[in-house]
Amino acid sequence: MRRDVFQAIADPVRREIIKVITNQSLTVNGVADAFDISRQAISNHVKILTECGIVVINQKGRERYCEIKLEKLNEIVTWVEPYKKLWEKRLDKLDDLLNNLQSPN
Total structural domains in the chain? Predict the structure, then answer.
């Protein structure tokens, strides 16, 4: 199955895993220690993140470390940007309208 970055961030646990390994690479056990769910569930989430290209597993000795590849998240930024601009314009118009309604005539 082909997975994409949007599938990766669709789940709150995967978003938290991204947060946890953003500052340091951790083993899957290290990642699992940060959560109240099974190691197997964490392994499945890490697998999805790996398939999406957000996480890379690097072997160091006997340990396998999860490392983040944040540049893959640029796909989300690119997709969200037009909507962000649209909503900023709409909210600016609403702000102008509210200011006009509140200003004394």
Answer: 1
Q: Which residue has 């082909």 as its token pair?
A: 2
pLDDT tens digits, residue range 16-45? Answer: 999 999 989 999 999 999 999 999 999 999
- What crossing angle do the helices spanning 12-22 and 39-51 adopt, rounded to 10°? 80
> For the purposes of burial, counting CB atoms within 10 Å of the CB of 66, is it exposed (0-12), middle (13-18) or buried (19 or more)?
buried
CA distance 100 to 50: 51
Give pTM, 2 decimals. Answer: 0.78
Q: What digits encode the pLDDT tens for the residues 13-23?
A: 999 999 999 98
Q: What region, left, alpha or beta, does residue 87 occupy, with left being phi > 0 and alpha being psi -120 to 50 degrees? A: alpha
The range of the structural domain enclosing residue 43 comes to 5-102
